[in-house]
């Protein structure tokens, strides 16, 4: 009778050319193929656990070097001797207060495959906002936060945290959400909440700077450049660590609407890029606390 051996390995990628990491997938060529194999990703290494239904089989301890945060990787399937394992798709919660155009662009990117994740819930500050209507029409769950006199069905901060945890949300993306995020949520999701702001922070940010007010202030200042900023969220308005920015020129005869439209186009592009990096675990933190994004094709490229 054959005995089943379970082997846990650490595979050094540079030493074993048959093992590689490409985008969201890990490829390993093991001979003979195991009956099952599970990969587990840590900050620097990919560990694997392989099971064999072959007697007296001993698998050497090896490791694969990687540059990703802790993440479980599920086996997709076998092809002869090749194992293909794919990083779990992330679950996203998006917060809106208005029309939710950034929400729509992110949702469309998840469907098209540009973002390795899924929008599992929309959190709206107003039940009748355009973002909430879009979510309902596309089958995305909608919850209200915060609870107010006008929105009595809204959740409390603790209720919001409990709901997002129940849905196993990985990342929270604020997309035109005008309420201050409660400290309970920030503590529950450290380094996992990002916001987009329509100016080049730290300029033209803070309480009261949102929407058209931002663009009006930029034009009135005489600034020659503006653009969207995506930053991690802390306990204050627009003061978290900056993750990504795009520069948009301010033209001499720009109206508020002209500048707003030009910045919004870049918001849509930039948020998809950042959401993809989050879902692929390509965010790293410099020693001084500044977050950077690793390139998808070239991990040594930082921006």
UniProtKB/TrEMBL annotation:
Subcellular location: Plastid, Chloroplast
CDD domains with a match to the protein in the record: FMT_core_GART
InterPro entries: Formyl_transf_N, Formyl_transf_N_sf, GART, GART_AS
Gene Ontology molecular function: any one: phosphoribosylglycinamide formyltransferase activity
The species this protein was found in: Quillaja saponaria (Soap bark tree)
Metabolic or biological pathway, per its Swiss-Prot or TrEMBL entry: Purine metabolism; IMP biosynthesis via de novo pathway; N(2)-formyl-N(1)-(5-phospho-D-ribosyl)glycinamide from N(1)-(5-phospho-D-ribosyl)glycinamide (10-formyl THF route): step 1/1
Catalytic activity: N(1)-(5-phospho-beta-D-ribosyl)glycinamide + (6R)-10-formyltetrahydrofolate = N(2)-formyl-N(1)-(5-phospho-beta-D-ribosyl)glycinamide + (6S)-5,6,7,8-tetrahydrofolate + H(+)
PROSITE patterns: GART
Highest taxon, organism lineage: Eukaryota
Name this polypeptide is given: Phosphoribosylglycinamide formyltransferase, chloroplastic
Entry EC no(s): 2.1.2.2
Formyl transferase N-terminal domain segment(s): 90-273
Native organism taxonomy: Eukaryota, Viridiplantae, Streptophyta, Embryophyta, Tracheophyta
Keywords carried by this UniProt record: Chloroplast, Plastid, Purine biosynthesis, Transferase, Transit peptide
UniProt family annotation: Belongs to the GART family.
GO CC, one annotated term: chloroplast
GO terms, biological process: 'de novo' IMP biosynthetic process
